[in-house]
Specification:
The protein has six helices and four strands, in the order E-E-E-H-H-H-H-H-E-H. By secondary structure, it is mainly alpha-helical. Helix 1 (32-43) runs antiparallel to helix 2, helix 2 runs antiparallel to helix 3 (59-66) and helix 4 crosses helix 6. It catalyses: 5-amino-6-(5-phospho-D-ribosylamino)uracil + H2O = 5,6-diaminouracil + D-ribose 5-phosphate; 2,5-diamino-6-hydroxy-4-(5-phosphoribosylamino)-pyrimidine + H2O = 2,5,6-triamino-4-hydroxypyrimidine + D-ribose 5-phosphate.
């Protein structure tokens, strides 16, 4: 039977909103959400929003700016978003050893974002909802959990 590790909200190290510094290409990020929204702006060539995202201090501000990216095309974003989230989280975890250990400690489980409001990156259910215990009753796709589970497995396998 499949085992799950549930997470939700910014206090979880698996959350995109968890505050933790990491650097990519000499750019310092304060959370994986900032990296994701910066990557979104870069993907669509919006330099103005890219700069504003880097200056934004909170994940909430970063997400709001990400919604304003000019030239956004949903299908193009869907082709690239998981790779962007994977790369940002890879840097977040490999540059923060205590967080890396927490991720590795989930070995043998599938990570699940227990967000009742997010049906794309999460499962659209809370952790205490009985429907969360089976993939067949999830209301969302769990893209973030999927990306983190793959990242963890890749790090364990050394790839």
């Amino acid at each position: 039977m499949e085992k799950f590790t549930y997470f939700y909200r910014s206090h979880s190290p698996f959350s995109q909103w968890y505050m933790c510094a990491f650097t990519v290409d000499e750019i310092r990020f304060n959370c994986a959400e900032q990296y994701m929204m910066y990557g979104k702006a870069q993907l669509f060539g919006d330099g103005e929003i890219s700069r504003k995202i880097l200056l934004a201090r909170t994940p909430r501000e970063q997400k709001e700016l990400g919604k304003r990216v000019r030239g956004f095309v949903q299908t193009e974003w869907e082709r690239h978003c998981k790779t962007i989230v994977y790369e940002g989280n890879k840097e977040k975890f490999i540059q923060n050893q205590e967080l890396l250990q927490l991720l590795l400690d989930t070995r043998g489980t599938t990570l699940v974002e227990a967000s009742p409001t997010d049906r794309i990156w999460g499962v659209g259910l809370t952790e205490d909802d009985p429907a969360i215990r089976s993939r067949s009753t999830w209301r969302g796709t769990n893209w973030l959990g999927e990306v983190l589970t793959k990242l963890r497995d890749d790090l364990i396998d050394g790839s």
